[in-house]
Amino acid sequence: MVNVLRRLNKLTAVIPQLVRLRNGPGAAMLPQDVTRIHMEFAHRINQGHMGPRVFFREALPRLKYWNPAVPMVVNRSYDQSGPATLTLYFREPGATLPSDLPQPSSSTQGLAKAPAPAEGERALTIDMKNRRSEAILKEFMEKSGAVSVKMSPEDEAIMREVEERERIGAIDRERIRKLNEAAKREKQMIAQAHSEAAAIKAAL
């Protein structure tokens, strides 16, 4: 029974994560002519790489969730002065691309540069440097033709429940914090009283 409850608790914790993954900025369906996506930016946020990093952490996982068949390669480097680009690849009208189109693996060492478009493919690059993630996503949606996915009534109900739990949890944490502070003050007062009593006794 204990193991069953533990599994239920784990499942309860995972469900909100899945709801957040499939809803929010980046939750969108790409048109069929989008063949792949490539991102390039630096590890640190300075010199204009903060917006790209936020897009990578928030929007890209949702895009991948809704478009699992679209390859998405991320190239991160330690060159802060380097580019921050988002490249979209499109299938040309009437073109047939090979199913085994070579794809570089994502890299944290700057080794996965954006490949040249294949025959029957075109590329469009968005400059992400010194831009907020919201602006990057807006241009991405416009130029890719992606369609936002609306949150389902079931997910809305789950998120309302999660928000209510978080609200109650915050109230409980504040109550416990105040109780702990009161207990700490009481302990300090008792220790001080004992110390003063010992000092008086020693002076007699």
UniProtKB/TrEMBL annotation:
The GO cellular component terms are: mitochondrion; ribonucleoprotein complex; ribosome
Alphabetically list the UniProt keywords.
Answer: Mitochondrion, Ribonucleoprotein, Ribosomal protein
Q: Where in the cell is it found?
A: Mitochondrion
Q: Where is this region: Disordered?
A: 95-119
Which Pfam families does the record cross-reference, listed alphabetically? L51_S25_CI-B8
Its main localization is mitochondrion
Say yes or no: keyword Ribonucleoprotein present. yes
Residue stretches making up the Ribosomal protein/NADH dehydrogenase domain:
44-147
Keyword Cell division (UniProt): no
What's a single GO MF annotation on this record? Answer: structural constituent of ribosome
Write the protein's name. CI-B8 domain-containing protein
Record the organism: Corynascus novoguineensis
